[in-house]
Design brief:
This is Helix-turn-helix domain-containing protein. It comes from Sporosarcina ureilytica. With 246 residues, the chain is mainly α. It folds into two domains: 103 residues, Arc Repressor Mutant, subunit A (Orthogonal Bundle), CATH 1.10.10.10; 92 residues, no CATH class. Helices cover 50% and strands 4% of the residues. It is built from nine helices and three strands, in the order ααβααββααααα. A three-stranded antiparallel beta sheet has the order 1-3-2. The longest helix has 21 residues.
């Protein structure tokens, strides 16, 4: 299938993962479950030649247990959102029209002006020494808190915005996965993967310059999740990501 190499739209799968994550971050509320499943399947087949997948609509429909018409509607929506484009492909040897090529498009970031934050002066509440001090109940450490603390440990700063976005990636993927009964007991595993992905992300920043931390994290999380949950199902179509685990 090396004929696909001239159609690939990304230099490597890391760039592909970053673009897909950015598209999802912008359009997550416009995509339904079927749209996301179609996007996920196409992205898995677009790894060997980063950015291009060659599949028949019927193959996608059968794998997702949907009708051809439903799959076509999802693909059309992905095209309208400029996440990917279809290209008709004809084989030279047979002269017949085969399956479409699905080419993922680079993400075009729209820069928005930074919001202005007003300075708010905090006033310390006065405490009456005659009133008993009531201890607040201990709040269990949440996954978000762990991610925030981990980000701080690597960067030396709070970076709550970054922590929130990383947590958002976790929520997008796990909300979809946990809808399936087969994954109902995988909650703790997915939390462990979320933390592990943060560590892998910041270790990678020590080796190279990463322009899109959110997209890179999304790629790591997806790869680790695939290995944990779908390794057998997709081993024939994907290549393992070369990630050194901490």
């Amino acid at each position: 299938m090396n004929y696909l190499s001239k159609y690939q739209s990304f230099a490597n799968k890391f760039e592909l993962n970053e673009a897909i994550a950015s598209h999802l971050n912008d359009h997550r509320y416009q995509l339904n479950d079927t749209d996301l499943n179609v996007l996920t399947m196409l992205s898995r087949y677009a790894v060997k030649y980063p950015g291009v997948a060659h599949l028949k609509v019927g193959t996608i429909a059968k794998a997702l247990q949907k009708s051809d018409r439903t799959v076509r509607r999802s693909v059309e929506k992905l095209e309208r959102l400029q996440i990917l484009k279809r290209q008709v492909f004809s084989r030279e040897k047979t002269g017949g029209q085969g399956a479409n090529l699905y080419i993922f498009l680079p993400y075009k970031q729209i820069k928005l002006p930074e919001p202005k934050h007003e300075q708010v002066t905090k006033t310390e509440p006065s405490h009456d020494p005659n009133q008993p001090i009531v201890e607040e109940p201990m709040i269990p450490i949440t996954l978000y808190s762990r991610i925030k603390d981990l980000v701080k440990s690597y960067t030396g700063n709070h970076h709550e915005g970054l922590a929130s976005k990383l947590y958002g990636i976790y929520r997008v993927h796990t909300t979809k996965l946990m809808k399936f009964e087969i994954h109902a007991d995988k909650g703790e595993l997915l939390k462990t993967i979320a933390i592990q992905a943060v560590r892998v992300l910041f270790q990678a920043t020590k080796r190279k310059n990463i322009h899109n931390l959110i997209g890179y994290y999304d790629g790591i999380f997806r790869e680790l999740t695939d290995k944990a949950l779908f390794a057998d199902a997709f081993m024939a179509y994907d290549e393992p990501m070369e990630v050194k685990m901490p």
